[in-house]
Every structure is written in structure tokens, then in C-alpha cells.
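User: Fold this one for me? It's MBL fold metallo-hydrolase.
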Amino acid sequence: MNWERIPLGPLQTNCYVLSNKEKECIIFDPGSEGNKLNQLLQARGLKPLAVLLTHAHFDHIGAVDEVRARWTVPVYVHKKEKDWLPSPELNGSHFFQAGPIHARPADEFVQPGEPLTFKDFTFQVLYTPGHSPGSVSYYHKETQSVFSGDVLFKEGVGRTDLPGGDHQLLIKSIHDHLLTLPEDTFVLSGHGPETTIQDEMDRNPFLNGF
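Assistant: Here's what I get for MBL fold metallo-hydrolase.
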């Protein structure tokens, strides 16, 4: 299996596409530019099976409806953010002058601690709140990758000044659920380049001395 990072929209939010040799794929956080993403998937000959959201801030959900309209796939989110997709006030689009986002509600809720499986794709769902109340990370053992959304970045962590943010909880989530992963795990963040668990343990100034 292989993953591809696709920065989308004015905030260059990372959408990830994880695909197998049968050209099936899982889409993470389609944040904007739905037509561009759909065209890319079609050009690659990929067939999406699901959309997995790390959380429901506007810059991670802006293309959700365009993607599921084209491919008829279910969208998953944590139940604590079940009302966020249709609400510009909750998803933040109301405050950032990005134009209001009224996406349809998610189709399914993830269950942290339980495996999430689509054919030969299996993920461990990690509950990692702090950036938002329903932030989750998806660990994929086969590619040694964790899709961390806006929880952990290369030498940084997610902002916690938005509604529902909690810096102390965020740092605890990272230590309890991400830094316990194998050190060679790739961290695929919502913004910026990929990193590894080992690099963040060694170099992330926000995590030292916790």
C-alpha cells in the first residue's frame, strides 16, 4: 500500500490518499478543491471506499460533499463532532472568512479503541482530543503510518485557542497515544511535511520535559 499527500485549499491542508494494489483507496480529510481531488483520483484510476476525518474543522471538510457525491462513499467522524459538518459556527468557517461550509452530516462514527476495517485496510482509531473535542488519529500498521490531523506536526503541535481546544489535554493525548507507537512510525500531519515519532520525541520543543 502507498499513501500520497495532497495539499488543498488556501491553508494547504493535507489530504491523504492511501491506496492498495487493487486501486482501492481511503481518503483522509478532503479539505477543499473537491473537483481537483476528484479529477486526481480519476486520473489515478482509484476507487474510494471511505472518507475518514481526523476532525471536523472547516479546512478539513470543505470537499466532503463533492467527494461523496462523485464516489458515493461514507464519511466517518468522532461522535463528539457529529453536529460540526453542517454548522459554520462549530466547524469554524463562520469565523475565518472562508465562506460558510454546510456539509451534510457524517454517515458513521468512529469507535476509538476498536479496529476500523474496509476490505484489506485496517486502522487503529486513537482518540487524541485537545486540538478539538473529537480529534482522532488513524494508525495504519501495514504502512507504519499515523494520520494525525492537527494533533502533532513536524516540530509542532496543534493550536488550542479555538473553541473546545485544551493544550494540556492535547499534550497528554500525544504522549499517551502517539508517542507510544513504534518510533519509526510516519506521522502524516494535517499541515506541513511528514515526520516520524522518533524525530518528534527527539526534536519537538513542545513535548520535551512533559
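One thing worth pointing out: The domain at 2-203 is CATH 3.60.15.10 (Metallo-beta-lactamase; Chain A).
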